[in-house]
Amino acid sequence: MPLNENEFRPKIVAFCCNWCSYAGADLAGSSRLSYPADVKIIKVPCSCRVNPMFILRAFEKGADGVILCGCHPGDCHYSTGNYYARRRMTLLFSMLEYLGIEKGRTRVEWVSAAEGVKFSQTMNEFVETIRSLGKNVRLGDLRCKN
Amino acid sequence: MQRIGVFVCHCGSNIAATVDVKKVVEMMKKEPGVCHAEDYPYMCSEAGQMKILEAVKEHHLTGVVVCSCSPRMHEATFRKAAERAGLNPYMVEIANIREHCSWIHKDMEEATEKAVILARAAVAKVNLNTPLQAGESRVTKRALVIGGGIAGIQTAIDIADAGYEVDIVEKTPSIGGRMSQLDKTFPTLDCSACILTPKMVEAAAHEKINIYTYSEVDKVTGFVGDFTVDIRKKARSVNSDKCTGCGVCQEKCPSKKSLNEFNRGLNTRSAIYTPFAQAIPNVPVIDRDACIKFKTGKCGVCEKVCQAGAIDYAQQDEIITEKYGAIVVATGFDTIKLDNYDEYAYNQSKDVITSLELERIMNAAGPTKGHLERLSDGKAPKEMVFIQCVGSRCSDNRGKSYCSKICCMYTAKHAMLIRDKYPDVNVTVFYIDVRTPGKNFDEFYRRAVEEYGVNYVKGQVGKVAPLPNGKLLVQGSDLLDNKQILKEADMVVLATAIEPEASVRKIATMLTASIDTNNFLTEAHPKLRPVESPTAGVFLSGVCQGPKDIPETVAQAGAAAVKAIGLLAKDKLTTNPCTAKPDELLCNGCSQCANVCPYGAITYLDKEVNDHGIRETRRIAQVNSALCQGCGACTVTCPSGAMDLQGFSNRQIIAEVDAICR
Known about the structure:
The complex is a heterodimer of chains A (about 150) and B (about 650). By secondary structure, chain A is of the alpha/beta class. Helices cover about 40% and strands about 15% of the residues of chain A. A 4-stranded parallel beta sheet of chain A has the order 2-1-3-4, with helices on both faces. Chain B contains 18 helices and 34 strands. Classes of the chains: A alpha/beta (about 150), B alpha/beta (about 650).
């Protein structure tokens, strides 16, 4: 898709666990399953490594959406990490909604190493949702102005 | 401040065709900490790696960023290169601008912009990297093979021949697996038992191989080189040491109504049974659900007739705990359930059977003693129809999307064997495609058509309807002649799709081995590491990884064995240095990190600290780096922010977030 000056290009951070989702993203890549370039992936060892602080930081710095991808429940490389992530994110996301960040801007998705198609579909859907939500302005006053 | 070198790989045209690598280099030169940036066609080549070595020397680099393919491909390569240059290998970060950028985006401007951002994030991270030292862990020189089919047997023999102890855990009463149920094998028409049983005997007699049959894996803890496994040896109710395998108990057992699993439920067996004549070990098992003694307390016939006094009704399940360095999964397959395929009348007519059931019918030890006959009335069939791809290559959700791979060949085998033994039986095969890639495979299929006169019809069957006269009406289409076909058949054989054995899910969860949507175990790399699981120390053998025939299974079993041997041959393994580390001054000893740690790696110690001049004794978390696997659960749980993960520290990840959102 060519760049259009006026088009809204969201900033999206995707945290992917090393064992399932990052590999799923690699499979999406080697299978040439495209998704918008707005998504930038950060590799973490496990979804449970994602501190709510990282997500707040992303929104503070101007991210329009944050997605966390991990192994399917029961398939975590570290046995239980994704359960912690799920619980933490449920709390965080409801707090973010309370602060005025729409629910659609945050998402947790389970993507296995074999699910390149799912990774690409999820990212396409997520970007679509963020585009329809528009720029994340609700946290404007909380954002660092420097 | 670091002195960082950025190296942008073209990967031939894989990256350079979509990403303006020169622009990425120019942009990176402006990043804080970067004092050298260059691009090169193939960074992973020896010449490419030399670029890193030279730049480290010339520019006194302290950190390296390589913008290339996924770190899953070449992170190790570039870390080694950095090490050769005298840098700590953990001062290298990879920006994945191929899988996550050039391969999925088409627009150059867009892809270049993203590549710059990904590179920027990697630079931001390296700015905060610290040198890390890998530790060492020991290797237990013993392997566990889960599954005692041909895959497991071959893997065990190969590992044992290299001089290592191997345990096979098999959940049924005998090793042998699916192959022991087959009558003949394609394309040579060898008798399956004749080639399998010598292997079974070899495994059983091998001094380095220990076989646990009628046993299951209950629990797995630990990690590569040092797994601890609980094996549940289910109560056989027969003392294996005393039993002579005479078989009198099975003859005299009054409960003979249990479905014979080995014969796919086509006939019955006694409550005390060995699954088949060549079973190893030749020690029967009492099926406690069927045994009259266990159900009513009365009977005890087997105990009375057993000369050896081997019957032991009081036997209990036994848990054996053993340590292993490597684990090979060889759990095999089963055919799918046909509940979603009512149109083939499998549940309505006894004369509609699966190919595996036909295999038992054709076998001399099977329910019909090897005579081809209808199960409904025992009559010899005159007209047989084979239906291919039942549940395979399925576009809806009823079956499997994949090709089961073996069906085309075994159907040609069945057709050929039937035409050879019963020349008056007409055989028709309905197929979508005939797939025969493999040595001497297509020749075999052509023989079925040309020499044995098997009638192949390209087209699918819509319905099989039982007729009042006992025959089956097969309604199909002939796509080549573009006409509908109505055929009255005496027997219909369904080439049923294969799927991984149901127990593999539980085993994969215990091993934290990755599994795909069809329950096949995922390999570490689909092409270059096909017998390794992404979980270190776990290897894949046979159909648990994907559909395979016997030669491929045996080849893969050998490959898995070599990989396991390669691991067992090492005395020490280097461990991942990206482990959790507490800040002693911030830790308040609350124990929350220890509560979430899945490995029990965190303990507490009363330690004297010097907190800005105040010396006092505090309870402080200690991480055992040999046990810590670096998941990071503790780092987020820690309320005081004392726990951090080396290599993925809070500051590093925040630096990446900032670089992306800048």
